[in-house]
Design brief:
The chain has 499 residues and is of the alpha/beta class. The chain has helices spanning 46-64, 68-84, 86-97, 101-121, 162-176, 190-205, 220-228, 241-251, 274-285, 303-316, 338-353, 390-393, 409-417, 432-441, 475-481; strands at 13-16, 19-22, 25-30, 37-43, 128-129, 142-149, 152-156, 180-183, 213-215, 232-238, 255-259, 265-268, 298-302, 357-360, 380-383, 400-406, 424-428, 446-449, 469-470, 483-490. The strands form 5 sheets. It has a 7-stranded mixed beta sheet, with helices on both faces. The radius of gyration is 24 Å and the shape is globular.
Length: 499
């Protein structure tokens, strides 16, 4: 049995409008490790989304009028409270996401950093002058632009890092002066509700309406109602490419910020430190139970080191501790639910049928064979994966790594680029020439050299190309996405027109 951390949010209610709204419906949130009940989350309806939009639109003038000092003070206060409450959030994230404790601890730590970094960016929201006299008509004129709040922001987060992803939406919205409505994933709403409860307490202490930050939770209709409404001027979504593309169509022509999936490429050059590269795959392929959009999926090995790398990786797979995510020593635990586990297993089995080799484990255990039940997928390494197999072409979003061999770094880059995705990629090499070639040629939003492709600093511009999304997160860059430029063109004295 486990104890669910105490709740700050009122039971059975969601922060809709300026207050907390009691809702008649609720849904179970279960612990992926053993299926036990973590808690019940209130479930809203489409009508609640309409009401949230009404309240957010009404709050726009108040939120936009917040001074730089007020916005910064709010974000720093939320930062301080979350830091003081870090253990409770860590415990709750372990239970509702099923991620290993070490990954949940990292999520909370990164969330705290993101809040502080966003607070620091508030005073940097500014414009610049524009030389209007480049054209004769602008002679004698003064031009400059400022950044103004774009309007209501809708932030939709995935289940894998629910608090961090929500923070990357609500914190920049506050910094930009925009009301924000957050929608967490239905599997993992509890910690995000608690985060919003803290934010609303801070807003109240600053004399700001609670409608500045709201949360709805429910089925796709609840989110679609938000996305389709023209009052939602910016939609920020983190999740699958399939849903992201659907949202882009629903929101058009309004702005969307889409951070979508990938099938991350990891190149190991012939001159690489093989042991370090193997260690990177162990660290970067299986964290968060493989449920990370920039976890290692496609490993492309240059031929001279392929055999040694493969043998060493398979030998070291036993280092990964599979078990209860509450244990700080656990590296891999069950994925979010049985349906995800079944999907991952099916994808692997189809690859094996197509000719891939199961390198680790020796054989796939039957679903439910482990004490933790049908949601457990053991860490898997596949070799000789056909490049037209689904496990190579699409995002697996599970603890599965695929190996293939090429004859050169150039061929490796070409192969990584043969994908509809492009979020981040990595190369291990001792050659500056190869490193810079990868940086120049890899068609992704970020290239990592001699580190896992899952490396992300929360202050950097983060996002993808191709089907991996559009726009960039990171406090400074998200604030820019949530604001619009307003150009001022001033002639100090009216121009005299002669006949």
């Amino acid at each position: 049995m486990h104890a669910t951390p105490a709740r700050l949010a009122p039971a059975g209610a969601l922060p809709i409008g300026a207050d907390w709204r009691e809702l008649p419906d609720s849904a179970d949130v279960v612990f992926p490790y053993d299926g036990s009940l973590v808690g019940r989350a209130p479930v809203s309806r489409a009508s609640d989304s309409h009401d949230a939009l009404d309240a957010a639109e009404a709050a726009r003038p108040e939120v936009a009028a917040l001074t730089t000092a007020q916005r910064k003070s709010i974000l720093l206060a939320v930062h301080d409270r979350l830091r003081a409450d870090a253990q409770r959030f860590e415990d709750l994230l372990v239970l509702e996401t099923g991620k290993p404790r070490v990954d949940c601890r990292t999520e909370v730590s990164r969330t705290i950093v993101t809040l502080q970094a966003t607070a620091e960016e508030v005073s940097h929201v500014h414009g610049e002058t524009v030389p209007l006299d480049l054209q004769e008509l602008g002679r004698g004129m003064i031009g400059y632009y400022t950044r103004k709040p774009a309007g209501v922001v809708v932030g939709i987060a995935g289940f894998n890092y629910p608090v961090l992803l929500a923070t990357h939406k609500l914190a920049p919205a506050i910094a930009a002066g925009c009301p924000v409505i957050v929608k967490p994933a239905p599997n993992t709403p509890l910690a995000t509700i608690e985060l919003v409860a803290i934010v609303r307490e801070v807003l109240a202490e600053h004399g700001v309406t609670g409608a500045a930050v709201q949360l709805v939770n429910g089925d796709p209709e609840v989110g679609e109602t938000l996305v389709r409404d023209p009052r939602a001027q910016v939609v920020s979504f983190t999740g699958s490419a399939k849903i992201g593309h659907l949202i882009a169509g629903q929101a058009a022509p309004r702005k969307t910020l889409l951070e979508l999936g990938s099938n991350t490429g990891f190149i190991v050059a012939a001159d690489a430190d093989v042991e370090a590269a193997v260690d990177a795959v162990l660290r970067g392929g299986f964290y968060a139970n493989g449920q990370a959009c920039i976890s290692v999926q496609r490993v492309v090995l240059e031929r001279p080191i392929a055999e040694a790398f493969t043998a060493r990786l398979v030998a070291r797979m036993a280092e990964l501790v599979v078990g209860d995510p509450r244990d700080i020593e656990t590296n891999v635990a069950p994925v979010i639910n049985a349906a995800s586990a079944e999907r991952i297993r099916g994808t692997v089995e189809r690859a094996l049928d197509a000719g891939a080799e199961l390198l680790s484990p020796a054989e796939l255990p039957a679903p439910g064979a482990e004490a933790s039940g049908a949601s457990l997928v053991p860490p898997i390494v596949l070799g000789d994966v056909p490049h037209d197999a689904e496990v190579w072409r699409e995002e697996i979003f599970g603890p599965v790594v695929c190996l293939t061999v090429v004859d050169s770094v150039d061929a490796a880059v070409d192969l990584v680029n043969e994908s509809r995705y492009g979020l981040q990629a990595a190369i291990y090499t001792a050659s500056l020439e190869s490193a810079f070639a990868a940086v120049e040629r890899l068609e992704v939003g970020g290239v990592v050299v001699n580190e896992i492709p899952g490396f992300r600093s929360d202050i950097m511009p983060y996002g993808g190309v191709k089907d991996s999304g559009i726009g960039r997160e990171g406090p400074r860059y998200a604030i820019e996405e949530f604001t619009v430029t307003r150009m001022a063109m001033i002639r100090p004295a009216p121009r005299k027109v002669t006949a």
